[in-house]
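Re: beginner question about structure tokens

> Can someone show what the tokenized structure looks like for a real chain? I only ever see the sequence side.

Sure, here's an example I had lying around. Input first:
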Amino acid sequence: MIYEMRRYDCMPGQIGILHKLMEELAIPIFERLGMTFVGAWTPEVGDDENCLIYILSYSDMGVRQKAWNDFWVDPEWIEGRGKYGKLAGGPIVSKSNSMFLSPAGYSPLK
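And the corresponding structure tokens:
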């Protein structure tokens, strides 16, 4: 199993719209495309109040690549992200990055 931890840093004041976009649009598409949504977090302490971190899991990197290829061209995603961009009045995310994680032998998540 491969876990992908994604971090999105939002434009100031846009974290609420990003949460809405994730809950209403992105996560349902992830699940429809076979991407397993593990969870999402926002930092509790510090100056990262405009940050969202979430984890997806896949059986392997090939499955992950196919899922993201399908995601970016999905008609529901293309139409829906424009709607949320209009709500935000422009870009929602200022930068993003991913980290790929393999579970340690003692990890309860395998």
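Each token stands for a local structural state, so reading them left to right follows the chain. The chain has a mean pLDDT of 94.
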